[in-house]
């Protein structure tokens, strides 16, 4: 039976933590290796930031990339195995935390930039996140989201928000039980930013040099005054 | 020989003015009839506007739709036959003018809203337009562009800015010599708004109720203070 829920996403990721750590640390995912890793790093480095909140930090690769430039990174992830790996392999503060638990009282520090790098896959959890992140940012803070580009999604679906089945196509056989994900149109993503008090200061469509196709969508919101 | 230039666009449209007037007045274009006409009208009507500059107004249909609600419309188009028809069939001030000629000194009135409804097809002409429109807007003015949605374009092309061949597929046989057009990615469109002093206050992806597919892209910029 297909289960489409925010909780099911977490269940799936907990099952796949071990092969995910290997996939990231061995650079197995071509689109990340060739395009999207550098795209998110460039975006962060273009901002006047000293500290960063990495929401859905996984096993810590982004912290490993950012801290050598002097950025201080705090990472959050709901999967204990990934946070444990981040603590071991990266410099920064890493905490096990579900998006639903996130609140200003839980994270007392204020950040220059919050980042969600391919880590916004749910429905209610994402809406909750947008509600609380602004309170964790400094008054000129930025919120960066990199995600699948909605316009180049599966053509079998209508172009509208909704749950979709996950897939590990292209990944190694160790992966199982792919997480479902909640599709959002570009209009819907930008509405989330607007309605939660961000002005869109940048929208980037990183292109694969190999194929000429779009590899992802990056949106940068700045706290509106 | 394929000619890709802003001038060629005008040449083609002059040739097709007569069938275009018929196509619009007979409601021949399904996507306009079912989706995109109402989408642009709704967008304009949602703004606190009294007067509107309709850039690339064609034969005046948008003026015919907006003036009954009390909006005052000024329309510009480079094709004399279309402006002549607009003067005949719509209420408003209509002028023959190429985008390249447009300047604050030529249009002394200030507008609450400038609209380009499927009328930004060129390269340099569009860049010029973005440079001058802001000076024609009131300080809380809006610039609305409706255009083809870039992400659902011809898959044979790489996803990057560039000239593309035109087509009259789906139109009646009276149409000839289709105009080329300059493709822009979403990133590129939003950069035009940002770099010319607009904050993006709305992005809309009107959907066909029949197919679930995206019919166009509407962007609304507001003059940044």
Question: Can you walk through the features of this model?
Answer:
- The structure is a homodimer of 225-residue chains.
- Chain A is an alpha/beta fold and 225 residues long.
- Chain A has a single domain (6-223), classed as Vaccinia Virus protein VP39 (Rossmann fold), CATH 3.40.50.
- Chain A has 7 helices and 9 strands, in the order H-H-H-E-H-E-H-E-E-H-E-E-E-H-E-E.
- Chain A has helices at residues 6-15, 17-25, 30-45, 61-66, 80-89, 124-133, 186-195, and strands at 51-55, 72-77, 93-96, 111-117, 137-147, 162-164, 181-183, 198-204, 217-223.
- In chain A, the strands form 2 sheets. Chain A has a 7-stranded mixed beta sheet with strand order 3-2-1-4-5-9-8, sandwiched between helices.
- In chain A, strand 4 (111-117), helix 6 (124-133) and strand 5 form a beta-alpha-beta unit.
Please give the domain count of chain A: 1
- Could you give the count of β-strands of chain A? 9
- Give me the CATH fold name of chain A: Rossmann fold
Instruction: Write out the strand line-up for the largest beta sheet of chain A, numbering strands in chain order.
Output: 3-2-1-4-5-9-8
Rg of chain A computed from alpha carbons, rounded to a whole number of angstroms: 16 Å
The helix content of chain A, as a percent range, equals: 25-40%
Short descriptors:
homodimer, 225 residues, alpha/beta, Rossmann fold, two-stranded antiparallel ribbon, 7 helices, 9 strands, 32% helix
